[in-house]
Amino acid sequence: MPQARKRLVSTEMTPFYHVVSRCVRRQFLCGLDPLTGRDYSGRKQEIKDRLGLLSEVFAVDICAYAILSNHYHLVLHVDPERCMAWDELEVARRWTRLFRGPTLVRAFAKGQSLTDAQRKVVQKHLADYRTRLGSLSWFMKCLNEPIARQANAVDNVTGHFWQSRFRSQALLDEAAVLSAMAYVDLNPMRASIAETPETSDYTSVQQRIEEWQNRRASKPEESAPASENQQSDCVSLDKTIIQLLRFTDDAECSAGPTIPSSTEDYLELVDWSGRAIIQGKSGSIPGQLPPILQRLDMSPDKYLAFVRKSKSGFANALGALDKLKEFARHFDKRFLRGQTAAAALFSPGR
């Protein structure tokens, strides 16, 4: 039975979450439908554009994304405390980028003068909006609802577009975050849609590689990348560039949240994983392990089994065994599915 989101999400325990939404009956409503021959691939860009807008409005950062023909994956960083630092005008302007809102709120967002009584009404609305702008559920609602309405209008149909409410998985530590990101970024390769990370359209890894290459091109004194795949030219499909959450080594990240890893470590991990999961490809099992696997004390075999899966064995939380137990206690649960696999994956030496 589905559980209330408040029983699955707690930013006190972790701000990082892996979420998935699937099209109804898993039909290819965002790609080429093999039954009808209709091509809905343009919706992938619509989802990407919407993600770009929401990342500018919400206190929710995008760590990874992969948009496929019948579903999409996201890894998100939810930061409700950031909303508390916004003044009332900032909250009003952000909210009215997505919704019309009451007349008084629109007037306030435009800087018009209000009476004391009118300001009290506006402040009541803004208190609700501030909470919503730091909410994972509202972020997903503002992503899925407009896509569904627009798709139904174009197709001249009614009913559900998404199969059910989105699924969420708490990522409890650094290893879990990076494993989930790699799993998300490798979706097109696992589905045999792409052969390399840089040719994986509508994924965050393609965007990160391109941005990383551009940064390196502006710093020619730096050493060349270790991976042959990372040296390849990238394909840019972006009309809207999603502002991805940066890694800790990014010089532009002087303040604010970051992903606990370096860019090169993560790209090396994805490149190694991508070549390892493609069956039958020459040299598909690299002999040299990425240092990041050793640093995080992750079992290479168990890690590859995790990223190879067409489904990630979607438990409510992912992380080291002690973190899973702590997460269970937080929600007054006696047990969480996936503890045995997590212990093997994240704590092989313990």
Q: Major sheet: order of its strands? A: 2-3-1-4-5
CATH class of the largest domain: Alpha Beta
Total helices: the number is 14
Please estimate the helix content.
40-55%
CATH H-tier superfamily of the largest domain: Transposase IS200-like
The radius of gyration is: 21 Å
Assign the structural class, choosing from mainly alpha, mainly beta, alpha/beta, alpha+beta, or little secondary structure: alpha+beta
Percentage of residues in strands? 5-15%
SSE order: EHEEHHHHHEHHHHHHEHH
Would you tell me the overall average pLDDT?
85
Explained architecture:
Strands 2-3-1-4-5 form a five-stranded mixed sheet, sandwiched between helices. The chain is α+β, with helices and mostly antiparallel strands. The chain has two domains: 12-83 and 135-343, Alpha-Beta Plaits (2-Layer Sandwich), CATH 3.30.70.1290; 87-132, no CATH class. It is built from 14 helices and five strands. The chain starts with 15 loop residues before the first strand and ends with a helix. The chain has helices at residues 42-57, 80-84, 88-95, 103-109, 116-132, 136-155, 174-185, 187-190, 204-217, 263-277, 291-295, 300-308, 321-330, 339-346; strands at 16-22, 60-67, 71-78, 167-171, 317-318. Helix 1 (42-57) runs antiparallel to helix 6 and helix 12 crosses helix 14 (339-346). The chain is 43% helix and 9% strand.
Task: Compile the SSE list and pairings.
Layout: E1 16-22, H1 42-57, E2 60-67, E3 71-78, H2 80-84, H3 88-95, H4 103-109, H5 116-132, H6 136-155, E4 167-171, H7 174-185, H8 187-190, H9 204-217, H10 263-277, H11 291-295, H12 300-308, E5 317-318, H13 321-330, H14 339-346
Parallel strand pairs: 4-5
Antiparallel strand pairs: 1-3, 1-4, 2-3
